[in-house]
């Protein structure tokens, strides 16, 4: 049979248990706006009973544990989806920057610069003797060159900005990995027996979500704590041990660094310090990392770098096609002396092995015609100069030197010099070997790609070297007409597109990709928001619910206090009012 002291203990356990329950409720209310806080729930349990004969008597209540109200499956799914959304958000940021580069403001942009360039050549073809028209050709060429350079600079800035962001994110990731490993250790030490390190687990959950958003990492809860790994199984955290991500920056020349989806980007253009490499314990993870870092890398390579390479392809083809026509031309200023832009260094170097030669891959077996004209514009002599890519530059110069009224030699630096005798001038026919274009002889542009494109130094110095015809006849417009007609020739994509159509398709493709990425980004963002709403409904603090609990526990506490007062009165009656005779 319960004793009065036993009854008092029942009241005491009730009083203390509901006092603790009110404390937990207060903590929930205090942290209603704390990011990552998971609401607590008090789990009460009946204390062991005792028997008196066939009767069972309770001994009170106890706080079994203070639980974190968490749906572990939902919590893990939210972390995964944050990584997915982080990938598409950062990819969209890069895509939008690339799209902005290719926007065509009214009266500006590459499309307009191309049209003005071709129109200037058409005007020269109409007036092949014009000096103003030649000035206009040079001006529009410089505008075109400047526009190409602006696109290059803008896209390189997108890549540079991506590198800077990733460098900062890698620093955040490593700090987060260190924190997760430390929390694993603290939780293991603190959760001995039935203890719960709720505050530490809140921090752990928050760090895991942050890590997933940055890297797309997954995690598994094991006996030694949380294990974190990437898609390819590379371990980032195992218990209290973590492996930081190493960030390496430099010019990797389009090797297998930062390559995604198995696509190998070769050395088409060299950018200085625009590539990065991420490793964990020496293992390259650049192509497997996801989240914000992965989205930015993907955007840098598959958008910014890809479209820079495509624009470079356009610039390179324009340079080559224009120069191929121009080398066979004659300007108002006739040629009596000419020095190649390219210098071979060693004259005995094979043509294909000259380090800085232009369009090396387009050199082939062929020939060009070297023509000599007298003062009256009559053709005096001409000779075909055969060229093989395995010929040395010295051998080719010696062949030119044998032409009547021509002196050809190499400078100490290995540049080709061609001179005509007094009273004579010279020119070339269209070159089937690619030699003249590759050496920069009588070309309109210098360079071979978006990085090196410029106006020929000869033409910069004297616009009268701009060729309109292929003979000394001032009315000859053949070369200018051929160059103007390049605007309409299907020279790109294996003869499928003109220069303008190729560029327009690039602009359209960038816009379509950006729109698609934005749509996926919006969809993943909506799904994350949906999951966060679900998470809040399960783990977030609801003020109305907590106020209801507060009132419930308060009433229980008051009832326990009233119960103890009643038991105390009973004890007082027994102790002070019983056994006193005559009272």
Polypeptide structure, described:
The chain has 583 residues and is α+β, with helices and mostly antiparallel strands. The protein folds into three domains: 4-69 and 543-577, no CATH class; 74-90 and 157-310, no CATH class; 120-148 and 318-500, no CATH class. The chain is 50% helix and 17% strand. The chain has twelve helices and 21 strands. It has a four-stranded antiparallel β-sheet, with helices on one face. Strands 9-10-11 form a three-stranded antiparallel β-sheet, with helices on one face. It has a three-stranded antiparallel β-sheet with strand order 13-17-16, covered by helices on one side. Helix 2 (72-101) packs antiparallel against helix 4 (131-190) and helix 6 (291-326) runs antiparallel to helix 11.
Draw up the topology in text:
Layout: H1 4-30, E1 40-46, E2 50-52, E3 55-57, E4 61-68, H2 72-101, H3 110-126, H4 131-190, H5 198-215, E5 218-222, E6 225-229, E7 235-238, E8 241-242, E9 245-250, E10 275-280, E11 283-284, H6 291-326, E12 330-331, E13 337-343, E14 366-374, E15 379-387, H7 393-401, E16 406-410, E17 415-420, E18 424-428, H8 435-439, E19 445-446, E20 454-455, H9 457-461, E21 467-469, H10 478-485, H11 499-539, H12 543-577
Antiparallel strand pairs: 1-4, 2-3, 5-6, 6-7, 7-8, 9-10, 10-11, 12-21, 13-17, 14-15, 14-18, 16-17, 19-20
Keywords for this structure?
single chain; alpha+beta; 3 domains; 583 residues; 21 strands; 3-stranded antiparallel beta sheet; 4-stranded antiparallel beta sheet; 12 helices
């Amino acid at each position: 049979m319960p004793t009065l002291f036993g009854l008092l203990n029942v009241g005491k356990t009730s009083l203390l248990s509901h006092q603790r329950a009110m404390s937990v409720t207060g903590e929930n209310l205090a942290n209603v706006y704390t990011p990552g806080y998971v609401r607590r729930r008090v789990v009460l349990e009946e204390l062991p009973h005792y028997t008196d004969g066939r009767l069972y008597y309770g001994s009170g209540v106890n706080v079994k544990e203070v639980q974190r109200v968490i749906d572990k499956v939902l919590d893990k799914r939210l972390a995964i989806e944050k990584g997915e959304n982080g990938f598409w958000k950062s990819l969209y940021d890069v895509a939008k920057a690339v799209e902005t580069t290719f926007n065509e403001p009214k009266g500006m942009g590459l499309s307009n610069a191309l049209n003005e360039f071709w129109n200037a050549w058409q005007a020269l073809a109409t007036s092949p003797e014009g000096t103003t028209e030649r000035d206009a050709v040079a001006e529009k060429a410089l505008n075109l060159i400047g526009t190409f350079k602006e696109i290059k600079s803008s896209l390189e800035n997108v890549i540079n900005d991506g590198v800077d962001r990733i460098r900062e994110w890698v620093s955040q990731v490593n700090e987060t990995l260190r924190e997760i490993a430390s929390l694993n250790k603290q939780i293991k030490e603190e959760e001995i027996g039935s203890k719960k390190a709720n505050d530490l687990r809140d921090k752990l959950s928050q760090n895991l979500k942050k890590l997933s958003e940055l890297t797309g990492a997954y995690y598994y809860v094991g006996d030694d704590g949380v294990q974190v790994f990437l898609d390819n199984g590379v371990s980032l955290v195992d218990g209290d041990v973590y492996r930081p991500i190493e960030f390496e920056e430099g010019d990797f020349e389009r090797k297998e660094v930062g390559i995604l989806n198995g696509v190998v980007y070769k050395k088409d253009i060299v950018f200085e310090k625009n590539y990065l490499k991420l490793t964990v314990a020496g293992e390259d993870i650049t192509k497997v990392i996801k989240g914000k870092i992965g989205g930015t890398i993907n955007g840098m390579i598959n958008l910014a770098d890809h479209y820079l390479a495509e624009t470079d392809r356009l610039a390179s083809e324009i340079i080559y096609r224009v120069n191929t026509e121009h080398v066979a031309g004659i300007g108002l200023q006739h040629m009596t002396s000419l020095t190649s832009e390219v210098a071979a260094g060693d004259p005995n170097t094979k043509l294909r092995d000259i380090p800085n030669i232009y369009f090396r891959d387009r050199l082939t077996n062929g020939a060009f015609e070297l023509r000599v004209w007298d003062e009256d514009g009559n053709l005096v002599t001409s000779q075909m100069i055969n060229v093989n890519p395995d010929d040395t530059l010295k051998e080719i110069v010696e062949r030119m030197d044998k032409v009547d009224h021509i002196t050809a030699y190499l400078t100490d630096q290995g540049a080709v010099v061609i001179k005509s005798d007094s009273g004579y001038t010279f020119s070339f026919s269209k070159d089937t070997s690619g030699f003249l274009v590759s050496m920069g002889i009588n070309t309109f542009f210098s360079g071979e790609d978006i990085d090196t494109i410029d106006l020929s130094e000869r033409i910069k110095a004297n616009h009268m070297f701009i060729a309109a015809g292929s003979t000394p006849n001032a009315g000859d417009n053949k070369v200018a007409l051929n160059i103007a007609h390049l605007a309409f020739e299907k020279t790109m994509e294996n003869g499928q597109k003109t220069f303008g159509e190729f560029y327009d398709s690039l602009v359209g493709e960038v816009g379509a990709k950006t729109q698609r990425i934005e749509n996926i980004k919006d969809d993943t963002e909506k799904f994350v928001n949906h999951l966060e709403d679900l998470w809040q409904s399960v783990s977030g603090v609801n003020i109305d619910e907590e106020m209801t609990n507060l009132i419930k526990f308060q009433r229980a506490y008051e009832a326990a206090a009233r119960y103890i007062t009643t038991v105390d009165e009973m004890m007082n009656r027994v102790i002070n009012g019983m056994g006193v005779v005559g009272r």
